[in-house]
Amino acid sequence: MNVSKKLNVKVGSEENKSYDIIVESNFDKLSGLLSELFLSCNKLMLVFDSNTDRFFKGRLVQKLKNTGKELHTFTFPAGEDNKNISTVQSLYEELINKNFERKDVILAVGGGVVGDLAGFAAATYLRGIRFAGIPTTLLAMSDSSVGGKTGVDFMAYKNMVGAFHQPSLVYMNTDSLTSLPEREYLSGVAEVIKYGYIWDKEFLSYLKENTDKIISKDEEALEYIIYNSCRIKKEVVENDPLEKGLRAILNFGHTIGHAVEKLMNFDLLHGECVALGMISACRMAVERGLVSESELEDMKKILTEYKLFNKISLSAVDFSIEDVLKATKSDKKMQGGKIKFILTKEVGKAEIYTDITDEEMIVGIKEIFEG
Q1: Would you say 191 is a known binding-site residue?
Q2: Binding of NAD(+): at which residues (predicted)?
């Protein structure tokens, strides 16, 4: 079947250890692709949150009737607070009640929360069934739907329980982004910008030169940034599918970002926190002499233009810089009691450091606070 844009992600040496990422501007080809891919499947479980249920459930159920599969749906309340074991248990119950077997398939329809949770359920139900991602946010399209990381939060620790479980297909409909509020859409741009800093200098240049087009969701610009974000993540993931080395660079901005996200009780969006984490990391790189002060200012400029950088006022929050430091120590990126920290050595090149001191982190954290 001809599609607009396609990437194939190889995640193992065996011929069948790969999956396609499809970028389209509608859902027209989804039914045919699912029918071709899941010939032995009898049932599809479409997983939504309360937001994607409202915008996409009716359309998708109607489209997927053409597959000839038995269709079921599961919806849970939107929000990071519901990405937990309790919601997964409810999904397990639904799968059991509907007699889902190992040959059947889960479809994750939504942003990162839906993809992570549905993917984790697929990884663990009957020791693993297949799933496909239908991401509907820029954050999910550009990052979380690709690579096979699944998981849920546990006791407010983000993604602390999870598994690597690769999807069988990722189908992206860029038109899905038209219903996305600007703030949530721009949150996804943070992950897109990240790729420029860690991997592709030319891609970052495009993001700087096409700010207005990207903010206004120009169709051509959207296709370009989504396709190239997936291309970069594919290149990294294929080299390190289980994050034993190189893949950790994708966590640029996430260590301090996750700590802030947790302490802010998720009032800041994930991408907004990643943006703050990138600035913190860049300040640390400046202090180490890896990058220049002007490069830090340039990062602040591009993140500000995309409405992603505002310093946090210490007087407006109930935690301190030391609390942020402490929260980073509970991050799952710890190795041998040391944090695996990602710093850029230059634009387009990142490396993993395990010798970052508390003093260095405090300097980095201070860069994103005021007062």
Answers
A1: yes
A2: 112-116, 136-137, 149, 158
112 assigned binding-site residue: yes
Q: Is 149 annotated as ligand-binding?
A: yes
The pLDDT value given to residue 315: 93
Mean confidence (pLDDT) of the chain: 94
Strands 18-24 and 169-173: parallel
pLDDT reported for residue 158: 83
For residue 351, report the phi and psi dihedrals to the nearest 5 degrees. -135, 160
User: In this structure, how many other beta carbons lie within 10 angstroms of the beta carbon of residue 6?
Assistant: 13
Of 144, 109, 135, 150, which Cα lies nearest the Cα of 271?
Answer: 144
Please, where are the H alpha helices in the chain? 30-37, 50-64, 85-97, 112-124, 138-139, 182-198, 201-209, 211-215, 219-239, 254-263, 270-287, 293-305, 321-328, 358-366
Q: Tokens representing 301? A: 């400029």
Q: Has residue 329 got a pLDDT over 80?
A: yes
The position carrying tokens 């077997």 is 101
What are the tokens at 321? 């810089």
Task: Return the residue matching tokens 């490396």.
Answer: 351
C-alpha distances in Å from residue 147, one per residue of 7, 30, 184, 211, 320: 13, 20, 22, 27, 34
CATH code (residue 123)? 3.40.50.1970
Give dist(CA 273, CA 295) in Å, integer: 20
Q: Are residues 192 and 335 in the same domain?
A: yes
Does the residue 305 lie in any domain?
Answer: yes
269 part of a folded domain: yes
Q: How far apart are CA 171 and CA 133, in angstroms?
A: 6
> Please, what's the largest Cα pairwise distance for the chain?
60
Is 136 annotated as a binding-site member?
A: yes
Sign of the dihedral defined by the CA atoms of residues 350, 352, 357, 361, in that order: positive
The residue out of 126, 150, 178 marking a domain boundary is 178
Q: Is 137 annotated as a binding residue?
A: yes
- The helix/strand count (H/E) of the chain reads as 14, 15
CB 281 within 8 A of CB 271: no
21 touches 168 (CB < 8 A): no
Residue 1 within any structural domain of the chain? no
Residue type for 262, please? K
270 has binding-site annotation: yes
324 in a labelled binding site: no
Per-residue pLDDT band for 40 (boundaries 50, 70, 90) equals very high
Annotated binding residue 115: yes
Is 114 marked as binding a ligand? yes
